[in-house]
Design goal:
Length: 505
């Protein structure tokens, strides 16, 4: 079988930090290859070298049996890198995004007619129900992901790197993405699938490579005998103790109540109650209104109608400051735009909310600062080079840990986490889950917004399923099944109106 990619003896260091150590990677043409590893193991660096964005300190690269030099980067046109944080321009149409930087001209003017025709042809080839003249801002996140992949086909890429493409998608949308991936494979395209969701690797991939500590430590085919436990063991270097939910009784003290909350076009007549020490889950399909609802609860989506009570007292969440002072804190799903301070250090990003607590007469107590920093880093096992490095030097998973640690540093009463383990490896997920469970046992109330069933099952005491801005169903932990979540999130009604668990899928 023809090799699409052969990377031999690839090494890369940044200063004294050795990121890649003699990496070998071989991938067959027309296959889907999983690239696995914990956050910070060098996956992104390796792919940036493959894509020509970084130059290795040593090693060689062959693309379709032809060896290339970093002097001309001719192979770059054959490779497309679809990043986890999408690079589409929301104010442009789909076809304008597809041809951005590669516009078709006719007589010195844009040939819109030809671009529309070619763009729609690409979308139709992949059986995507997307109008190429639609504005990208109007698309669901899953459709945006597919448009990003379509851009690589406009550029006639033969190798497509997909970095955590399912991190923001629900099960239905993932099925659509996988269908498109299989279609690309049938057309001879080679796909590299970077993911922390091992069940998806087993479902879609032909082969895998696991990276650990900057080395490729295991490669092989994905067969019926390959298991999630095996893959996670390769990733962490030992058999991983799987996290399981700790059943506990919460207090009967109400901490958060939402009464008849509505906002036109986003959510309607929402009622819910959370108790001290309880972990409440909200799930559904993208666009179901759960993020907008809790952005309103935490003051960043005003105005709204209805009532919010914290510890029995009404609050007016006109802005985030009001909500924060009431004991509410929120971690957004979009860490790049609404989470990290990109120009600040690891230390500043982590300690920002508590600098006032650490200072006296305008001077920061450096010893107290170091103690707080060390404790927060240890609690979530955050990996970094130096505390003064920019936060953008960290892997996405470690950035996410910093956001969660920062949110919890002010000791809030109620924490809303929107897609809290997006782009986080399996070991780090369990560390985050354990920390959430530990704090819930100490009385902190959590609301988890997620489309991942396994996340709900491992954490939540009660679950609200939303559909088109309304709560479709409330389930207890004991009532929860994956089939029920899918049924109600797609608009199914009550069981006595026709739900049959064995017919949902």
């Amino acid at each position: 079988m023809e090799r699409a990619i052969e990377m031999k003896n690839i090494s890369k260091s940044f200063g004294k930090n050795s990121v890649l150590k003699n990496i070998d990677l071989e991938i067959n043409r027309g296959s889907i290859h999983a690239l696995l590893g914990e956050n910070g193991t060098g996956k992104s660096t390796l792919m940036n070298i493959l894509n020509g964005l970084l130059k290795p300190d040593q090693g060689t690269i062959k693309i379709f049996n032809k060896q290339y030099s970093y002097k001309n980067l001719k192979w770059k046109s054959q490779i497309s890198f679809v990043h986890q944080e999408l690079s589409l321009v929301n104010d442009l149409s789909v076809y304008e995004n597809l041809f951005l930087g590669n516009e078709i001209l006719k007589g010195g003017l844009l040939d819109k007619k030809k671009m529309i025709k070619e763009a729609q042809s690409i979308l139709d080839q992949m059986d995507l129900k997307i109008d190429c003249k639609e504005k990208v801002a109007n698309l669901e996140i899953s459709s945006k992901q597919l448009v990003e992949i379509s851009k690589s086909l406009i550029h006639k890429a033969e190798i497509i790197i997909l970095d955590e493409p399912t991190s923001s998608l629900n099960d239905v949308e993932i099925s659509t993405l996988f269908r498109v991936m299989k279609k690309l494979k049938e057309h001879g395209k080679t796909l590299i699938f970077i993911s922390h969701k091992l069940n998806e690797v087993l479902q879609i991939c032909d082969s895998f490579t696991v990276m650990r500590d900057g080395r490729a430590i295991k490669s092989g085919p994905v067969t019926e005998e390959t298991t999630e436990s095996q893959l996670s063991g390769y990733m962490v270097g030992k058999k991983l103790s799987m996290f399981s939910k700790e059943l506990h009784s919460h207090s009967d003290e109400k901490t958060l109540e939402i009464k008849h909350m509505s906002k036109t076009g986003q959510f309607k007549d929402i009622n819910m109650t959370a108790f001290r020490g309880e972990i409440v889950g909200f799930t559904g399909l993208d666009g179901d209104g759960k993020s907008e609802l809790f952005e309103s609860v935490t003051g960043s989506n005003y105005p709204y109608s209805g009532e919010i009570l914290v510890n029995g007292k009404p609050i007016n969440a006109r802005n985030t400051s009001n909500a924060f002072l009431s004991g509410l804190t929120y971690v957004s799903r979009n860490r790049k735009e609404n989470g990290i301070f990109k120009d600040l250090s690891v230390e500043d990003n982590l300690l920002m909310p508590i600098y006032s607590k650490l200072s006296k007469y305008g001077l920061i107590n450096t010893r107290a600062k170091q103690i707080e920093f060390n404790e927060m880093v240890q609690d979530l096992h955050i990996k970094f080079g130096d505390e003064n490095d920019r936060i953008t030097s960290l892997s996405g998973g470690n950035q996410q840990k910093i956001l969660i640690a920062r949110a919890l540093s002010s000791i809030p009463k109620i924490v809303i986490l929107d897609n809290p383990t997006q782009g986080v490896d399996i070991n780090s997920k369990f560390e985050i889950y354990s920390y959430i469970q530990k704090l819930s046992n100490l009385g902190v109330t959590f609301v988890i917004l997620t489309n991942e069933y396994n996340e709900i099952k491992k954490l939540c005491d009660q679950i609200y399923i939303m559909y088109q801005g309304e709560i479709q169903k409330k389930l207890t932990y004991e009532e929860l099944t994956e089939e029920k979540v899918l049924f109600y999130s797609m608009g199914g009604r009550n069981q006595d109106e026709g739900y049959e668990e064995n017919k949902v899928l």
